[in-house]
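Hello forum,

I keep getting stuck at the same step: I have a sequence, I want structure tokens, and every attempt I make locally crashes halfway through. Rather than fight my setup again tonight, could one of you with a working pipeline run this one for me? It's a single chain of 126 residues.
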Amino acid sequence: MPGSSTRASGERPSQTRYAFVSHGPNEPTSRCGWEAPARATVRDFVDHIDYAVRLIGIDHVGISSDFDGGGGVTGWNGADETFNVTLELVRRGYTEEQIAKIWSGNLLRVMAEVEKVARQIQAGQK
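Reply #2:
Ran it on my machine without issues. Output:
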């Protein structure tokens, strides 16, 4: 069952395992035979961003896209509709600075730190 963990008597709990099923526009049901849920919307997607921001803070949330084979979010089916995500963030009161962090700033900050540590390791400083 998605999200569940099981254990035999005397064993340590296993890691929680999740199952993700992709539903493309021509896939009405999952491979499990269950009815496919309604496609997520941009509003649903930003609900998840809101949740992550509340849970771990704006400095630790980033989003990106990969449309190789089509999108999966109504209102964000391709790169040409990316603006819709930004528009929904603005509607919810995110500032320009916060949106910049979510779209690229946080990732760039982390990658700069990774590069810094890599240089230190290569120089024998760590």
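Residues 1-23 have pLDDT under 50 and may be disordered. If your local run keeps crashing, start a new thread with the error log.
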